[in-house]
């Protein structure tokens, strides 16, 4: 350490070093001497998607402190970009330092207190997850279930609101487990008429399908960084409107989780016009990646981003149907970003998925929750929503099914693929 | 998107594009057209510290899926490395996808239920924070306070345990707000004798001072990634021993926070011998950085890592005292990683800190919580714990104090610095 030591000191240090070495009962693992291995894969599952090279480059920039002016500036840029992507003017638009699940928990625990009634619209796995979380927070949880592969109609939602009289309705715009897209127009007005707040999960849908937080009168929403945005996972954009903020202000009890507390995190993000306060040490690295990803999305613009995803989804559906596969989600309810394909009788989905990965380094996923074992899931998100990648994943899917089940009968018309 | 469109379709698309464009009430912010700016700074505050170039390089690797075998392998490597750094054989050693606060909340909410008595050892800001969190989870919170600038004695801890009969004792090994190090030897045995679990926060201390989870009979602990390890912030190593796991298993109620639930996250990390299950989408990027940082620490070995930090701290204390400054923490309780310096009368700490940053791009921090306005804080962590950087920060500190208060009287003996 550059300290000049006299001989007696050196002897003493050597003695202490031996003593200290004996104190260590757990050895350093040999495995960490091997280099880090990260293969380059084509991520055509329901997320994460491949990040743009600009995003990856940004993430190798030096670490900054959590209250440095440059960090606060990047946070402000992200807030502005997310207001555009959510289509909202909400002051309380910021990010949680957590995965998308953090968004789900933060909306629920900020807006619910013990005994509050919450209604969960169930279109797949995420409804189950939200119900689990809300019940842990002490809410009285009710569920309104859509038919398998379908979304809820406005009439079904109205009836459930009138039956259960919830203070909060939770919906998932794009359920990545079923590939079902929930319509949102008109739901906000229904909620206001029933003195209910509307929370919407846009993790898998934002950027791939229209979303208008303010116009649709949505009170709280969140998205995933690693889906259409193609940013690294681990940071979650979230937004609360004035009705949600007022509900928070009327709470009788503190929000149970310090880490999710809207006012504490929001003050760190400078959302409420008060001085920025320290709440937690944010990951500057994830901020760099997210800012870059949002900048790329803003450069492209929402209309182009959405058309691109919708066009690619159409190309994928057509390709799959032409090969003879059946889609899981009803046509009118199909989510552009995640396509669910029924596993044909006699086909082992896991072998197909493994073949695609092993042979082509292409990710094609299986089902999740209610669709486990029943569907394949192909994601088209961000950088991966191009006609070239649609064609690539169709080809890999076809080859993998053929490899696993050589006698599988494809429709003749598509034998050229 | 490469789709060939007939003229009527193109016209229709153009019409819809115009319509869609009109629907967007919030515009894309101009500020995102400017490039991302990340200056290179010397981070000599209480964390984050500067990351090693190998860590930064790792973070620009491609994104992997959260259940890919390569990702699971990296997670296993991290578990092995953290068992070495915590000096534990605990199966339940894993990471949370959150900042260090997540560790605090996860230990408390996994081990506490409504009405449980918790005793918080208060040596600074982190005791207040833990008390806030525990009370939100419904615990009956008691505090035992150390004298300012000191740690708690074993006698004080014994007396508080016997008075309050807590089921959980929470201590901070290195309180970064006061620069105080809490002694831990003997506390575990006291806790066992009183049927109490011992949680220790090692966020600011691990790697800079000895820590022996198993030998010291600590039941739960966590650390920060961005301190001595010099990994990116946003991912938090945590460990629970068999007593903590048994306490979890005897719970009458579910852990309130899904995201912190030991068994759900632990199963994702493969800690309990059950199949790996999906819990959340982990940030592969943060895993790359953390694995690399842990590998670097293992290569150096714990004894060397600790001597380096202790030697540098000694050099810093000597330099500061020689200049005439007074240290805040008592000599026997000084934390090697964060040094607290009393702000001399008539010196504006904020101006000094701002001068250091503006003129030298060197971070020197002010106080936090109970020490706000009273101290400067200088951190020596990971890559920054070298004699060269100690000398650099001493020089910058001296120059900044002189610039802000030209008539400040430095001790003569150090005028050469």
UniProtKB/TrEMBL annotation, chains A, B:
Q: Which residues carry this modification: N6-(pyridoxal phosphate)lysine?
A: 227
Question: What CDD domains does this protein map onto?
Answer: AGAT_like
**Sites where the protein binds substrate:** 377
Q: Which family would the database say this protein is a member of? A: Belongs to the class-V pyridoxal-phosphate-dependent aminotransferase family.
Where the record annotates domain Aminotransferase class V, the positions are 64-367
Q: Which GO terms describe its cellular component?
A: peroxisome
Major location (coarse): other
Per the database entry, which stretches of residues form a coiled coil?
none
The protein's name in its UniProt record = Alanine--glyoxylate aminotransferase
Task: Please state what class of enzyme this protein is.
Answer: transferase
Q: What Gene Ontology molecular function terms does this protein carry?
A: alanine-glyoxylate transaminase activity; L-serine-pyruvate transaminase activity
Keywords for this protein? Aminotransferase, Peroxisome, Pyridoxal phosphate, Transferase
GO biological process: one example = glycine biosynthetic process, by transamination of glyoxylate
- Localization of this protein: Peroxisome
In short, the EC number is: 2.6.1.44
Which organism is this protein's natural source? Anopheles minimus
User: Which Pfam family, giving just one, matches this sequence?
Assistant: Aminotran_5
């Amino acid at each position: 350490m550059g300290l000049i030591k006299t001989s007696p000191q050196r002897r003493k240090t050597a003695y202490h070093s031996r003593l200290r070495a004996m104190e260590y009962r757990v050895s350093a693992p040999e495995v960490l001497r091997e280099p880090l291995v990260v293969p380059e894969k084509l991520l055509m599952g329901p997320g994460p998607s491949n990040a743009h090279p600009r995003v990856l480059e940004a993430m190798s920039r030096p670490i900054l402190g959590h209250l440095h002016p440059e960090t606060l500036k990047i946070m402000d840029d992200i807030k502005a970009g997310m207001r555009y992507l959510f289509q909202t003017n909400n002051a309380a638009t910021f990010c949680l330092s957590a995965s998308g699940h953090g968004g789900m928990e933060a909306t629920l625990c900020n807006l619910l207190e013990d005994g509050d009634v919450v209604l969960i619209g169930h279109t797949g796995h995420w409804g189950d997850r939200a119900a689990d979380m809300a019940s842990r927070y002490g809410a009285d949880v009710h569920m309104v279930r859509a038919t398998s592969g379908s979304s809820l109609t406005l009439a079904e939602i109205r009836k459930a609101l009138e039956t259960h009289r919830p203070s909060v309705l939770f919906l998932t715009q794009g359920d990545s487990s079923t590939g079902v897209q929930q319509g949102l127009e008109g739901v906000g007005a229904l909620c206001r008429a029933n003195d209910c707040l509307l929370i919407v999960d846009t993790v898998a849908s934002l950027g791939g399908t229209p979303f208008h937080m303010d116009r649709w009168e949505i009170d709280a929403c969140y998205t995933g960084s690693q889906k259409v945005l193609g940013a690294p996972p681990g940071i979650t954009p979230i937004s609360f409107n004035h009705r949600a903020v007022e509900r928070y202000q009327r709470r009788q009890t503190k929000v149970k989780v310090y880490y999710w507390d809207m006012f504490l995190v929001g003050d760190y993000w400078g959302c409420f016009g008060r001085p920025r306060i320290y709440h937690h040490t944010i990951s500057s690295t994830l901020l760099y990646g997210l800012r870059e990803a949002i900048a790329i999305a803003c450069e492209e613009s929402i209309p182009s981003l959405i058309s691109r995803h919708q066009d690619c989804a159409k190309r994928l559906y057509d390709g799959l149907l032409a090969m003879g596969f059946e889609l899981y989600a009803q046509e009118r309810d199909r989510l552009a970003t995640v396509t669910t394909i029924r596993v044909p009788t006699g086909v082992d989905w896991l072998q197909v998925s493994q073949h695609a990965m092993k042979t082509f380094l292409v990710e094609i996923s299986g089902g999740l929750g209610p669709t486990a074992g029943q569907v394949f899931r192909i994601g088209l998100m961000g950088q991966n929503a191009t006609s070239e990648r649609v064609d690539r994943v169709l080809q890999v899917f076809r080859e993998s099914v053929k490899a696993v089940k050589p006698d599988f009968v494809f429709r003749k018309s598509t034998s050229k693929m």
